[in-house]
TrEMBL record:
<feature type="domain" description="DUF402">
    <location>
        <begin position="52"/>
        <end position="160"/>
    </location>
</feature>
<dbReference type="InterPro" id="IPR007295">
    <property type="entry name" value="DUF402"/>
</dbReference>
<protein>
    <submittedName>
        <fullName>DUF402 domain-containing protein</fullName>
    </submittedName>
</protein>
<keyword id="KW-0378">Hydrolase</keyword>
<dbReference type="Pfam" id="PF04167">
    <property type="entry name" value="DUF402"/>
</dbReference>
<dbReference type="InterPro" id="IPR035930">
    <property type="entry name" value="FomD-like_sf"/>
</dbReference>
<dbReference type="InterPro" id="IPR050212">
    <property type="entry name" value="Ntdp-like"/>
</dbReference>
<dbReference type="GO" id="GO:0016787">
    <property type="term" value="F:hydrolase activity"/>
</dbReference>
């Protein structure tokens, strides 16, 4: 088990709470703790997971698994089944941390996206630039976010683990808890 792992067992309910800089509310959702491996801790978001943030909410028509990276990396990666627009969606964040059974991170705007057709890109650079000024991101947070985005983008493009299909195993675990899709898009 990774050193920064939560004291959770597979199947335990967890909550994911993302905020924006300055403790502004952002995405929140309930999930299932799946386990851990050398890449980090994995949680499952079954089809019909309810996602909400101020001004927007939806019930997912897709299943996903989320990896809280080992070693305190500054991102949160979601690997979706074929029903989502994005096969991989990685939020650049402060290093995600457990607060009991709640996983917390501050979303720092930049996202690495791999669409189902294989297109890979960095998203929300304009929002990141605007928020640096509007929210007063410290220089070290800007540098961490840019470094994390560059590393994740390179890893997704190269198909490095866990962006190499590793998530399929965790989708199978999610299925055993009754929450996954039978097929997962190729990572």
């Amino acid at each position: 088990m990774p050193i920064d792992a939560a004291p959770l067992a597979p199947g335990d309910p967890v909550r994911v709470v993302m905020s924006k800089w300055g403790e502004r509310a952002h995405w929140e959702y309930d999930a299932i703790y799946l386990g851990s491996d050398e890449h980090g801790e994995w949680i499952g978001c079954p089809t019909a997971t309810f996602y909400s943030r101020p001004g927007l909410e939806f019930v997912a028509a897709f299943a996903g698994v989320v990896c809280k990276p080992a070693g305190g990396a500054a991102h949160l990666a979601c690997f979706n089944d074929e029903h989502a627009q994005a096969a991989i969606y990685v939020d650049m964040t402060t290093p995600p941390e457990w607060d009991g059974t709640t996983l917390r991170a501050v979303d720092l705007d930049l996202d690495v996206v791999k669409r189902q057709d294989g297109t890979i890109y960095l998203d929300d650079e304009d929002e990141f630039a605007e928020h640096q000024v509007a929210f007063g991101y410290p220089a070290e947070v800007v540098a961490m976010t840019e470094r994390s985005a560059a590393e994740v983008l390179a890893a997704v493009r190269a198909g490095e683990a866990p962006f190499d299909g590793t998530a399929a195993t965790w989708h199978e675990v999610l299925q055993r808890f009754g929450g996954g899709s039978a097929s997962v898009a190729s990572s």
